[in-house]
Specification:
The protein is mostly beta strands. The strands form 18 sheets. Strands 48, 50, 51, 53, 58, 59, 60 and 62 form an 8-stranded antiparallel β-sheet that branches. The chain has a 7-stranded antiparallel β-sheet with strand order 49-52-61-54-55-56-57, with no helix packed on it.
């Protein structure tokens, strides 16, 4: 099978950063079918981009200590979140610290390194920060690629091991500090790529551990839980003369330097000029690694988990697209990479043109087995694998290293996950080099389904009388696998269809719904709203469709009806039943019909009134759906439903929308409230909520007038909210129907839109 490669030769800075020797970054790809996402999978952090201090270069490592994050890399200045390049800059020479909870730069911590910092490690008591890199001076004092910073004071300590070339990795116990890199001597004594020194080393503290590491370099080091041995990773091909174990991975006894059994190295084989294990981490029970390969030098571009107790493989994530860093939390393992195909590990497929997922998260637990790679790359069929979790922030790569990458490193604690690298933006937010994400309990949780408006394309057709077929694309959310779709018909008060769909972003499918209750012969408007678990909504645009079939003939006793299934810009046009709406007061531009609703734009001290004057009825039972676009700043907005309307005479229900969302109701005779209250107990609304109002007017001399109000979509209450008996002579005659809006003088400068829907007036 023909292989398709996309690769870049790393620039000199990136070469030194990644391996200390020349290397290639490679990519490959494919597509594959996978199982659906399990909704019981552990949660990731939110995809919300939290404001974080920015840098002008690249971050290679971050270390969290309490509420402080220490950053090492290659950069000359820092600037606040949101600041453009070259503005509000603070000098920082390859190391800085910021607050984990706020992302703000810590002013007093500013060690100065004259070369890049590649790795950092805490002393067991968390008082010292050991540093590795290519520097030769710290704060103007000679320190040859090894140093320690006192975290209480920020001062350089007397610790000063001497290495004759770059150190890539550092790890520490209470009795030894381990360094790995490309050096050939430590403290002026032969040590090839790996050495152990005393924590009190001042140039003569070299320890006896002296394994033979052949070819390549050491990229990272982790220490066993008891401190008795270490695991090293890199692109070396032999350790102590052995290649199995010893090819890119080795386990070494600290006391003797002897090689130990490491079964995982029989499955994970990365070494030589074009392949390496780039990162190692430990959680005290397991150790984790990630790597890259190009050509035939290795077999893992993803990551793995192995047991400290046995050295056996626990799982292997076999994506294509180099993985630079890995970090385990209690339930989730995060990665920094440029993954583009994970199909043979149950993940996302290759795309054309190629797309990259620079940050990913998988389960700690085994969730399946790997399959064969369909492009002919080295693979691991039958080995256990984790499950990919729905967490896919979008990154804009940077250019600092010349490798065109985004994040290079990831670190986490129980509340935050922090990434570092050379990226310029995250999810479209300018955020250079450093970024924070938080667990959902403390995050804003503002990231919703990705598509909205015209991009979230809804189509509507009418395949048969009284039916409308709606179709829309699946709408993935970057940090929630489950999205709920709500279908709205403008002539209905609540969703006519609700469905929750759980699917990974690459498993999204076209959704559809058949509305079989659309009134034949009418024009209807629809939209779909995609909503995530935190209530973030992404709506389609409204679409209009002519419903097949003949309109239902009038039924004896229906006086007036209107579903507002039309479009009008300076009036309300003609009702479905009851004749033409007449604008009796108000400016024409304040009257419109759209998206299945009749609309009044109510201004301060302004009245809008629409009447069906062709109707003449005495006994009526009227219902209508009402909502407001916003609540008044102060005062009130009225919505009035009237019957027996003749000139100024009428009976009516009058809703009162208050600034705090409470709602009042009065029964009104010819503009004068007779009974009711400014607040109906237990009833409140927010903008966009709908209320149903029912007004019943029956009998003469006396006339019984009754009204009730309740939230649309809920069960109509059996009792009436208010009623009155009245014998006023002028109000005993038949009349028309009206809908009127009024705003007090203090509602604010922006009009309040009062909208009506589903008007029905019958003879009881």
């Amino acid at each position: 099978m023909t292989r398709i490669h996309e690769w870049r030769l790393l620039a000199a800075g990136a070469v030194a950063a990644v391996l200390g020797v020349s290397s290639l970054v490679m990519s490959g790809g494919a597509t594959a079918d996978t199982a659906p996402v399990d909704p019981e999978l552990p949660e990731t952090v939110s995809a919300d981009v939290l404001p974080t201090v920015q840098i002008d270069g690249v971050a290679w490592k971050q270390v969290i200590v309490g509420d402080t994050v220490y950053v090492g890399g290659s950069f000359t200045s820092a600037r606040p979140a949101g600041a453009a390049v070259g503005t509000n800059e603070t000098p920082r020479s390859n190391m800085l610290a910021y607050r984990l909870s706020t992302g703000e730069l810590i002013p007093g911590f500013a060690p100065s390194f004259n070369g890049q910092v590649k790795d950092m490690a805490l002393s067991p008591d968390k008082s010292l920060l050991y540093v590795a890199g290519s520097f030769t001076q710290v704060n103007g004092v000679n320190r040859y690629r090894g140093a320690a910073i006192n975290l209480a004071t920020g001062a350089l300590t007397s610790f000063r091991p001497i290495f004759n070339s770059t150190t890539n990795a550092v790890a520490a116990t209470s009795t030894a500090v381990f360094y790995g890199g490309v050096f050939t001597s430590a403290d002026n004594t032969a040590r090839t790529k790996l050495a152990a020194v005393s924590p009190t080393d001042t140039g003569t503290g070299l320890l006896s551990m002296n394994p033979t590491v052949s070819n390549g370099s050491v990229q990272d080091i982790v220490v066993s839980p008891d401190g008795a041995d270490i695991v090293i990773g890199g692109n070396f091909t032999r350790v102590n003369g052995w290649s199995s174990p010893g090819y890119g991975l080795a386990r070494i006894k600290v006391a003797t330097g002897a090689s130990m059994s490491l079964p995982v190295n029989s499955e994970v084989r990365n070494g030589g000029a074009n392949s390496a294990i780039l990162a190692l981490e430990s959680d005290g029970t397991s150790f984790y690694g990630s790597g890259y390969h190009y050509g035939s030098g290795g077999n893992l571009e993803g990551s793995f988990k192995a047991s400290w107790a046995t050295g056996q493989l626990t799982w292997l994530e076999d994506c294509h697209g180099d993985t630079y860093s890995i970090w385990p939390t209690a339930t989730t393992v995060y990665q920094a990479s440029h993954k583009h195909y994970c199909g043979n590990s149950g993940g996302f497929p290759e795309t054309s043109p190629r797309s990259f997922q620079h940050s990913t998260a998988v389960t700690q637990a085994v969730r399946g087995t790997n399959t064969r790679d369909i492009y002919g790359y080295p693979d691991h069929p039958g080995t256990p694998r984790p499950e990919f979790l729905e967490w896919y922030p979008k990154w804009t790569p940077g250019t600092f290293t010349g490798a065109n990458q985004a994040p290079w490193t990831v670190t986490a604690n129980a509340d935050y996950v922090v990434y570092g690298g050379e990226f310029l933006k995250v999810d479209g937010v300018a955020q250079q080099g450093l970024v924070r994400f938080a667990v959902k309990d403390i995050a804003p949780n503002d990231v919703g389904p990705a598509l909205s408006g015209a991009d979230f394309g809804l189509t509507a057709t009418s395949p048969a009388d009284g039916q409308v077929r709606l179709t829309w694309p699946g709408n993935a959310d970057r940090d929630n696998a489950t999205v709920t779709y709500k279908v709205y018909r403008a002539s209905a008060d609540s969703p006519i269809h609700t469905k929750a769909v759980t699917a990974a972003f690459w498993k999204q499918t076209t959704q559809s719904f058949l509305d079989t209750a659309a009134p034949p012969g009418t024009t209807q408007s629809y939209r779909v709203v995609a909503e995530d678990a935190f209530g973030n909504q992404s709506p389609t645009e409204w679409v209009t469709v002519d419903v097949a079939g003949e309109p239902a003939p009038p039924v004896e006793g229906i006086v007036a009806a209107d579903a507002f299934g039309r479009a009008e810009t300076s009036g309300w046009g003609t009702a479905d039943t009851g004749g033409t709406w007449t604008r009796t007061t108000g400016t024409a531009g304040n009257f419109s019909v759209s998206e299945g609703r009749g609309r009044h734009a109510v201004t301060a001290s302004g009245t809008t009134e629409s009447r069906l004057q062709e109707v003449s009825a005495g006994d009526v039972d009227a219902t209508v759906s009402v909502g407001v676009s916003r609540l008044p700043d102060a005062g009130y907005v009225w919505s009035i439903l009237g019957a027996r309307v003749s000139g100024a005479d009428h009976y009516a229900s009058r809703l009162r929308f208050n600034p705090d969302g409470t709602v009042g109701l009065h029964l009104v005779r010819s503009g004068t409230p007779v009974v009711g209250a400014n607040v109906v107990p237990g009833l409140s609304v927010a903008p966009g909520d709908r209320l149903k109002v029912r007004l019943q007017v029956t009998g003469t001399a006396p006339t019984t007038v009754r009204a009730k109000v309740w939230p649309a979509g809920s069960t109509e209450p059996s009792g009436w909210t208010y009623e009155l008996s009245d014998s006023t002579v002028a109000n005993q005659l038949p009349g028309g129907v009206m809908l009127r809006g009024f705003g007090s003088s203090t509602i604010g400068t922006t009009p309040v839109e009062v909208s009506y829907d589903d008007l029905k007036v019958i003879e009881p």
